Every structure is written in C-alpha cells, then in structure tokens.
C-alpha cells in the first residue's frame, strides 16, 4: 500500500492545512515511510483476535445523572479570540 | 404487485423511496459526558464547562441514564441490544462543534435491527429500524448581520446545547410515500413519548427529522440517487418539504436529467429545499474509536432491568380501549396516539368509576360512560386545546372536571346543549361544571308542570302553526319545540318538551 500525492492533498484539506508542492512531496515520502513500517503488522495472524476497542482493560465506566455547576461565563470566554454579548464570535462560515 | 401499488403507479410516474433519520434529545438532567444541566434556554454559554467545550486535558465520563434511555428506546422499537458497544469520534470542522469532532457511535451502536408498525389508509405496514445510536448534540449558531447563514458577515456560538445527549434513530429505506413518512414520524414520536426518554418537543428541537429521498422508475430494483433533507422542524414542514422535493426530483428525471447526491435544507419561508453542499466534496468523517471512553459491555440482566421499565405501548393500549370499552378503532387510535391524551382518558375513566382491568370487557353502562368521555375529548376538548396554548398535559379542564360535567348530563341536571356552553366556560375559567351551572342558573327544567304551562302558552300564541301540524305538516313540531327551548333559554329538558307538546296537541 502506498499513499499518493492526491491522498496527501485530500488529508491536508480535511485538516484545513495548506501545503506547498514541496511539502506535499516531503509528507508523501514521510507518511509512506510510516505506513511502510506499520505494514509489518500485516505479517501477524489476527484471524482469531477481536478488534481492539480500547487499550485499557476497563469497561462500563459511568457516572450518575447529577447536575454539577457549570463554569462561569467570564472564565469560559476569557480565552476566546473574539466574543460578543456572551457568545463566541466566529468568522464568516460560508 | 398488489392493487394499492398499481393504484399509486397510475397516480405518479415514479416510485418514491425514503428513509428517515430522527435525532431525539434524551430527557436527562445532565449532559452525556459532564455534569452541566440540559435545561432548555438559559443565557448563552452558561451551561458549559471544560469537558463539553473539549478544552485540553479533560476526561468525559458517560452518563448512565443515557445508556438506560437509549436501550429503552431501542427495546420499544423492537431492536436487538448490543452486548458490546463503543463510542467513536466523527471528525469535521464547524463552529457549532467546539472539539472539531462529535462523539458518536459508528460500527457498534447500542441497538440495531428493529421495526415499527404504521398504518396508512387502513393498511398496516412494517418499517425497519436499522439502528439506534448514542451521540452528543452540537451547539447553536446565531448569524450576525443576516437572518440566515448565507448572508452572514460573522456568526456567534452558544454552546449550552453542546453535549446534550441524543439518540439517532435510522430507518431502513422502506418508506414509499409521503403519508407513510408522516405516519412513521407520528408513531415514532408517540412511542418515544410513551417511554418517556424524551419530551419530543419539535418546536424546541428535541425531536428533529432528516429524510433521505430518492425516486426510481416503477419496477426498477436499484435505488435512484438520493438527496438528504434537513431542517424539517414540524410535521407540516416534513410534509411540505417532501412534497416539494419529490416533485423537484420528478421534474429533473422527466427532463432526462440526473439527481445530484447532496444535502438540501428545507426553507420554511420560501417553501422550497435549497442545496447546502455536494456530498462528494464534503464528507469524510475519519471515524475512529474514542480513546477517552471505555467500551460498554451490556449484560442480559441489564437489558432485562430496562425492559421491565417499558410501559404499555400505543398499539397495545389502543387494543385495550377497543376491547375493554368498545371504542371504535379510529377513536382509540387517536386517543392512544399521544401518551398525554391516553393518560387523560384513563384518568377520566377512573374518575367516572369505569376503569377496568386490561383483558376484561366493561359492562354496557361503563362502555357508555367511556364513550361519552371519548366523544368529549375527540370533539370539544381537542378543538379548544388546539385553539389555545394548552395541551392534554395541562388542560384547563381536568379529567375529574370533565367527568363532573358528564355526571350532570347523565343525571339530567343540564341539557346537551347547555353542557356545551358550560364546557366552554370550564375551559376558560378552570372551574368545575357544578359551580358554573349554579352560578349561571343553568339547571335543566325537568318540572312537568312548569314545562306544560310553557307549552300551552306557545300553542296559544301560534294557532297557525298548530293548524299546520293538524294538517299533517310534521315540520311544525320542530318549530314548536324550538319556541319552548327559546322561552326557557335552552334549559327545558328536550325530551319532556317533546312529550308534553305531543300530549297537549292531541288534546286540541
């Protein structure tokens, strides 16, 4: 399996990353190296191994349905790049 | 091909294929992964914390009530409950999603392979339920400088709704007409109301419906290309949006065009669906198992515990009303179509002393009383409720007060006609019937002597009508009864008026 430049472009677009042609070249090589290394796992026989849902041997971690106080709005908005009238203000979407 | 299908084929040149995706907010006190309240409204960004905002270093913890509710809904929809279930991240960028991913369930939903039975035009049909999965809701956006997204210069985000628990219920593409789509949503809403996992308020967005719509030529096996419709926030909107979309697609296909696979938004004001984005460029969600949450292992004991909390479902309740009280299937269907209305009926039966255990057939008197209750609910009460801001849950006329009115009718204290006026007063004031009847002096006149005297006066005053009657004009009788009712302001017992009129006329 080998990653194409188009696929790298697509993944970059999904992550909202703008890459130069040179960067696409570089990351295609690097990502293919990583995938190639991971490819070694394919040699293992996993026919009888269930897919891993989580790396910890834990299950059913839950809490009761109780309301806790929320955080003060000033604190919530303190790190917002922009705010207006208690809202997070965000740039034009479309 | 059955007759019904042939009929539809003649009516419309394409077969409609639809599936619905319904999002339902669960009625928990706190959010799915944190302790923030789920209360509707509230000042913007006052029901938020680092967990639901997805700030670095936080750890979500699953609300157990969400799992119980999702399971309960799944069971009510005849689904299999998974023995092993997990959460996944659905990745996309949008300002209503502060983490840039939504915690949802991808390949191992909590419930799958269920069904729901509907009825359209007297024909029963089973619609498959593909899956029911748990996920978190997103926030709300207000668009600055414009009424909608398209013209907005900027937007403002309120994250109070972020992290409110949802279940998404996905149907199979089994729906073949707009009537079936509406019937499916009505039935689904009723079932969810019965289970009490959600308040199902479409106007507050706690029940939201998307539809996948495609057309194909009759007889073709493959599905046509579908469009996904969003933003239908009422039954009326669903109906109108589907009508519009089906016609839009039919026109394109008739002209030999191709349907684009895309998401379209229903615009209520314009009465049309509008393309949001083309599916091919947009969505690649890159789901992966949510590393911050551990899987769920669901024992049969747990499922049985939740199963034990399921109430009597609408169709069972409908059958009970038909069997026990002899109500027509149509009436029983309307009454049990909403849990609030069905509960109202049961409370009224209890107040009238005719509540009857399931499986037992009530006696004729009890059936008559139940029928009276049903008639008032289906007629006057529903009419007044629909014209007001009230519903069956908070009706100004309580079940007990309705029965109070029916008791006055049964005892002959008031006439049917007066009862209608009294009922309107009861609705407006919330007072019991007896108080209104006493206050306004509306007690029916059942004193034979008093009515006989009025009847004689009327006969004396209308010699020509009497002559008409004697000449065989039956209609004259109606006029005379009307005069007697008018003279008593509608309070005379109509049965007595009729009887005494006949007697007096014979004497002449």
TrEMBL record, chain A:
Reaction(s) this enzyme catalyzes, per UniProt: L-glutamyl-tRNA(Gln) + L-glutamine + ATP + H2O = L-glutaminyl-tRNA(Gln) + L-glutamate + ADP + phosphate + H(+); L-aspartyl-tRNA(Asn) + L-glutamine + ATP + H2O = L-asparaginyl-tRNA(Asn) + L-glutamate + ADP + phosphate + 2 H(+)
A single BP term in Gene Ontology: regulation of translational fidelity
Keyword annotations of the record: Ligase, Transferase
Enzyme class: ligase
EC code(s) of this entry: 6.3.5.-
SUPFAM superfamilies, sorted: Glu-tRNAGln amidotransferase C subunit
One GO molecular-function entry: ligase activity
Signal peptide: none
Family the UniProt entry places it in: Belongs to the GatC family.
Subunit structure: Heterotrimer of A, B and C subunits.
Function per UniProt: Allows the formation of correctly charged Asn-tRNA(Asn) or Gln-tRNA(Gln) through the transamidation of misacylated Asp-tRNA(Asn) or Glu-tRNA(Gln) in organisms which lack either or both of asparaginyl-tRNA or glutaminyl-tRNA synthetases. The reaction takes place in the presence of glutamine and ATP through an activated phospho-Asp-tRNA(Asn) or phospho-Glu-tRNA(Gln).
Protein name: Asp-tRNA(Asn)/Glu-tRNA(Gln) amidotransferase subunit GatC
